[in-house]
Design goal:
The complex is a heterodimer of chains A (431) and B (191).
Chain A lengths: L1 H25 L17 H18 L1 H5 L13 E4 L2 E4 L16 H10 L1 E2 L3 E2 L6 H4 L4 H12 L12 E2 L7 H10 L14 H13 L3 H4 L16 E3 L2 E3 L4 H6 L4 H10 L1 E2 L2 E2 L4 H7 L6 H12 L18 H15 L25 H9 L4 E2 L5 E2 L11 H16 L7 H17 L1
Antiparallel strand pairs in A: 1-2, 2-5, 3-4, 6-7, 8-9, 10-11
Chain B lengths: L4 E8 L2 E9 L4 H8 L18 E6 L2 E6 L5 H4 L3 E3 L6 E2 L5 E2 L2 H8 L9 H17 L7 H9 L10 H13 L8 H10 L1
Parallel strand pairs in B: 1-5
Antiparallel strand pairs in B: 1-2, 3-4, 3-5, 6-7
Helix pairs in contact in B: 3-6, 4-5, 4-6, 5-6
Classes of the chains: A mainly alpha (431), B alpha+beta (191).
The complex binds FE2/S2 (inorganic) cluster (FES) (2 copies).
Chain lengths: 431, 191
């Protein structure tokens, strides 16, 4: 008995030491590279140049996606909720307000926050701040971003307190997480065999664009796994698989992907859910060469022959066909061809192709508001049909769409629909 | 290739239609105008945006509006539908008598070109019918009118007269509000 106790004691002590070591490893930031410019000595034109570059970094990094004020008025004043399994986190005020924002920060502070996830005073940021992706930001980009941020109007808006479920509200826990999952900050280096465009694309996708934060599957500790961009359900929507194979299978050509990123619309789909703000804050403002670089990185030189409708899979659900004709065909056409600038074609749309029908169910239930996309593209409102379709009818319609255009012969059952709705409502309630 | 047909039947303005074989992808507005000569339902945007084509579908849970331009007969099959032609009543000589909503639109000069009017009549009629089932406090009337008619577009009038007309109907009809003047008047009469 005593022996057992001794072993137990030893284990507890070892555990505590290990945890202590991890905390120590994950606490605070490591070394940072030297500043890329001496901000104090920059003259007018050089500063204006730097600020303009900083704006491009802010666009490519899509700071506004999380730091925008959902009540409008500022892209940097914070308050945007992000629903995670650990609770709800609110984007913070990153305007140069001394009181509520980052007005008191230095360029070193900004780099440390972005690349190490550590704010001044050694406060760990939650990994909702994508420092795992941003860890490879270049110091030059971070400094340009700093110059731009500091040139924006300060907004005196207090931050919204996070609503995290204990123990996730304890910031020191982040140290443990960091010790295991945080890469060391290390400015991006092109690989020796990489073309400048390929390197730029990889940098934009993996680092600034932090695409993987939504599109890469996460493990139980909510860290990104080693299957980059393989698709992930996050905040009640599927961020689809963006690996070259998957994109090609869904009919993406390089040209369509470029159009999609720049204008929000392609025969394969329209920017929806969290990608609509990504379009309006980020990708629609990117220079064409960056869009090209992203596209060629994502497709890795591959390309589908075109957005060709998939052959019908199995026997399309007969009741679903009637529902389609009665509720959908008026805008999307009996053969799913859609109408330019008002309703998307469904025969080449990728939403019915995903294994997980969650996005399809949500779009049909909730509809989509009328949207000004970008470059003159727009879509009219799609009504939501939650009040006209029970779970059985939704299952029939969803099965039909997947069979007719999605390449999925297997029907979706009504209880699967009910489960999806419960899951989505849970995310809504957390907002 | 022959256009696939469905066997369609419905009750339209109280009259049984069908069963009749119709193209399966026919939209309600085409059925009404081209097959039944009910031309009062206005086709405007054809995209579900303007609601000029609003018709009423009656179900167990009450009445609701749907845009006839994008609602296929496949969904209306077997249902009971009202169009603008079915809204007015009749006097003893069989002459049409405007419904309270129609009367109020005339009285308030709510419309000019009238292209949007059948849609407004139907949307307001559904609102009145839903309030008859579940009356609301007067304080909520404005909000309810705005939500109920929000989707209906009118390019002539600026909406104010439509709003005033509907508000008058709601406030002067007993049973639509829980605390409106009509309730008080009614209570006095009863007492
Ligand atoms: S014509 Fe139907 S909504 Fe405009
Ligand atoms: S009266 Fe002309 S559109 Fe409404």
């Amino acid at each position: 008995m005593i022996r057992v106790l001794r072993v137990l004691c030893l284990l507890v002590v070892l555990g505590a030491v290990a945890a202590g070591l991890l905390m120590w490893k994950g606490w605070g930031a490591g070394p940072i590279p030297p500043a890329s410019v001496d901000l104090a000595s920059l003259d007018g034109p050089a500063r204006a140049d730097l600020i303009a570059r900083g704006e491009q970094v802010a666009r490519a990094g899509d700071c506004a996606a999380c730091h925008t004020d959902p009540d409008g008025g500022s892209d940097l004043a914070g308050g945007m909720p992000m629903v995670t399994p650990m609770g709800t986190i609110y984007g913070t005020n990153i305007s140069p307000s001394e009181t509520h924002g980052i007005g008191g920060w230095s360029a070193d502070d900004l780099y440390t926050a972005i690349a190490w996830g550590v704010a001044p005073g050694g406060r760990n940021l939650y990994p909702a701040m994508p420092y795992v992706s941003y860890h490879a930001i270049t110091r030059a980009d971070s400094d340009a971003l700093y110059a731009w941020l500091m040139a924006q109007p300060p907004v005196e808006k207090p931050n919204t307190p996070n609503r995290l479920i204990p123990p996730f509200n304890l910031r020191f826990g982040v140290s443990l997480w960091n010790a295991v999952f945080r890469p060391d900050a290390a400015p991006f280096q092109p690989a020796t065999d990489e073309t400048p465009e390929a390197a730029r694309g990889r940098y934009l996708v993996d680092v600034l664009g932090h695409c993987g934060e939504c599109h890469t599957p996460r493990n139980l500790a909510y860290a990104m796994t080693g299957q980059p961009l393989a698709g992930n359900v996050i905040e009640g929507a599927l961020a689809p698989n963006l690996t070259p194979d998957a994109l090609v299978q869904r009919g993406w050509t390089a040209g369509d992907l470029e159009r999609f990123l720049a204008s929000g619309l392609a025969p394969q789909g329209v920017m929806t859910f969290r990608m609509f703000p990504v379009l309006s804050h980020s990708t629609s403002h990117m220079p064409p060469e960056d869009i090209k670089a992203i596209t060629s990185h994502l497709l890795a030189g591959r390309s589908a022959p075109g957005p060709v409708p998939r052959p019908v899979a199995g026997t399309p659900d007969a009741a679903g066909h009637q529902l389609y004709l009665g509720l959908c065909a008026g805008c999307h056409g009996p053969n799913g061809t859609g109408q330019p600038h008002s309703s998307v074609p469904l025969n080449t749309n990728t939403t019915a192709m995903f294994d997980d029908p969650i996005n399809l169910v949500r779009i049909i239930r909730e509809g989509v508001e009328a949207r000004d996309l970008a470059q003159g593209e727009r879509m009219q409102a799609m009504p939501g049909f939650a009040d006209r379709l029970d779970d059985t009818q939704m299952a029939q319609l969803v099965s039909y769409l997947r069979q007719r255009w999605g390449g999925h012969a297997d029907p979706v059952a009504a209880d699967r629909i009910a489960e999806i709705i419960r899951r989505v409502d849970g995310v809504e309630a957390a907002h | 290739m022959a256009i696939p047909k469905i066997s369609f039947s419905a009750t339209i303005n109280g009259q049984k239609i069908g069963p009749v074989d119709l193209p399966e992808d026919l939209m309600a507005v085409e059925l009404l105008q081209e097959y039944l000569n009910l031309t009062g339902t206005r086709l405007t945007c054809g995209q579900g945006v303007c609601r000029a084509c609003t018709i009423i579908v009656d179900g167990e849970e009450g009445s609701r509006t749907v845009p006839a331009c994008i609602t296929g007969i496949a969904w209306l099959n077997g249902r009971s539908i009202r169009t603008i032609e079915g809204i007015a009543g009749k006097d003893t000589d069989g002459r049409p008598v405007p419904s309270p909503v129609q009367q109020a639109f005339l009285k308030h000069f709510s419309f000019q070109c009238s292209y949007c009017t059948p849609g407004f009549v139907n949307a307001a009629t559904v609102l009145v019918e839903s309030l008859a089932k579940a009356p609301i406090p007067v304080a909520e009337v404005e909000g309810r009118i705005l939500t109920a008619l929000d989707a209906n577009l009118c390019r002539c009038t600026g909406y104010v007269r439509y709003y005033q007309a509907v508000r008058e109907v709601i406030l002067s009809t007993p049973g639509l509000t829980v605390d409106g003047p009509a309730q008080t008047a009614n209570a006095t009469v009863k007492a």
